[in-house]
Batch of 3 targets.
Target 1
Amino acid sequence: MRRLLPCMALLLVACSAGSNVQEGLVTTLEGQQISLQELTRGKPAIINFWASWCSFCKEEMPQLQAVSNQFEDIAVVGVNLQEDQAVARAYVEEGGYTFVSLLDPAEELKKQFGVFTQPTTFVLDAEGNELHRKDGPFTSEELLQWVEEIRSVSSSPHVEDSVEEPDSETSPVTGPLTLWFKDSVRHSIPLDAIVFGGPQKDEVPAIDSPTFVDASLATTELDSLRGLFVSIDGDARFYPFAILNWHEVVNDTVGGVPIAVTYCPLCAAAVVYERTTSNGEDTFGVTGLLYQSNLLLYDRKTQTFWNQIRGEAVVGPLTGEKLTRVKSEIVSLSTVKESWPHAKVLSTDTGFVRRYDLDPYEGYDEAESLLFPVDVVDERLRSKRIVYGVVVDGMAKAYTQDAVQDEGRLQDTIGSVPILIQYDAQTERVRFTRFFPGTEKKEELLPLHTFWFAWVAQYPDTDLFE
């Protein structure tokens, strides 16, 4: 979500993707079978047929990416024309294109749409009816006109003043959940509120075998990189957002504690949990599905979905369980090098080919629009304003990052509970402490760093520190 420096000096090792595309199947670039209808159902769509060697396609791809970034209500889908999986995938990753591109090895989609050249672009309404076809390159003016047209006839997401979390119940599975569960499933969130985020299961691959380098080896050009810092029993580790943007989950063990470092780029929600459930130690992956624009994790043993912001199981056998939070800090690499010189930094040697020097969500934190709908919109703050949110005795309250950093020390109450908030500019650490009146007891709270819209979507009755 943040602008990254043009190069990352940490070791980057490319791994070649194996080709496992079955003849005749429409697949993602990762080789997983999928249908075009799954990606466009209920949304207007722009379908672009492209090839990596096509000069016009090279000009169009950044424009399509811009539409995908800006308009969550439009499905942007690329279809590669008869190139090898490795070639198409390398081209997409090199360009940092995050909208879905498909492989069409048996020319199924090519024949369906009657494509004879590249690029060819189709504009469909939400019912799948063809509105426009362009053989050859489109102009930026044409693309803008198409976007305005299909957005003018598509319905806006329904916005309510509040949202209530239903009690746990069991319902028949529908839509994307049919790929995960049979017949019916236990859940605590509305199943129809779960939306497809674009990537399929594990196409945003969690890092299960992280490697690290000494913080002292990172060059000064990288000092401004920000990320999550965790220290347990003297074992200090830093996880740059530049890497988490592409993986969202790192399954690691720090100080002997099995943890899951999680980050949702759509929400700027950064939180660390112990990766232990009622089934024991587990690992977590990325479903590719979203709830309130927030990523849904899944555990590998039971395939239960977990709300990343709340750390709560919301769909599947473990529904209702909660993960244990692990204390973490959001700091810059320069602070880590100065305050914890012996810390380890997550290496770009992840086993995956990703452009860690590029931010796939660059500019999203400045845009007011959201890529995916939420049930609650609260205009007390700009939607992408960073806040620290806490819940005390069932009452939620948010504090803007600016207020915390500008004041340095804040005294407040949540309900009748006294709260002290402290910010150390040297270490970039934020401390929330609750006090128990009439006693010497106090307790450190673990705030959640996220966008305002994401906090309100999860806690619609939240108070806001003024």
Target 2
Amino acid sequence: MKTTGLFALCFLAFLPFMLASCVTSVDLVEVIQGASDRDRKLLPETEWNKLGIWQRVAEQPATYIPHGYGVSAPRGESDGKWFVDKRDGKRLFVPNSEVGEFSNGVLVGEATKIVGQGSRQYLYTRPGIMVVP
């Protein structure tokens, strides 16, 4: 009786690993591509600017700077970095310094998320196989 119980425990312990090995790389590629397609969807400004970090300062192309950064403040290469959304052309400027309560790192992270850069996910499906959408 004890041997059967031990076998059952071992079987249950390794069951997730056995099931995971049944998933094919193709299945995982489809899942990643589906998530990737959702990431590419353009959201309205009310969605991506929920926190009110960005203010629009130009129309063609739509250009944004952080609230609290002067509209006439410099926006050259030495002053910060431009992030451009390849889907619709909107541009966001992130100054090298903190603006209000937002550090440069937070602004860079938000801008990157908004324009869809750096959203590439890497997933290892089997030892030695990496799937890149």
Target 3
Amino acid sequence: MTFCNAAVQHILDDLDLDDDFAPPPTPESASAAAAKARRDEAERKRTERAERRAEGRPDPRLVDSIIARALADALKAADARGHVVRHRKLDGLTLDAKAILGLAMNELKARGFPKDVAKVALQGRLLPCEHD
């Protein structure tokens, strides 16, 4: 490294600095740190999704949407809208949880997931362990 100012160059030469000398890095800004955190989280999620696909497990968002669709179908079959119109509340409306889970299970199986995988996925979303 050579400077135009001979005096500065002489001082630097006397210091015998390595050519690899670099000033300390500047602290990362808050926005840069947040952006790095988002990139790291996105990479973690990509890896997680790839592992899930490789293992043949459905994405939790897919399972959630299938459960929601099954619940909507059950509400429609039970005429929940008519019940609310008649009674002005949902109290007294009953739904069959087994039927809802059956609808969700059938949809997951229709999408190519084996029964045991579908069962674990539904249990994981609806009946998670306390430590999860």
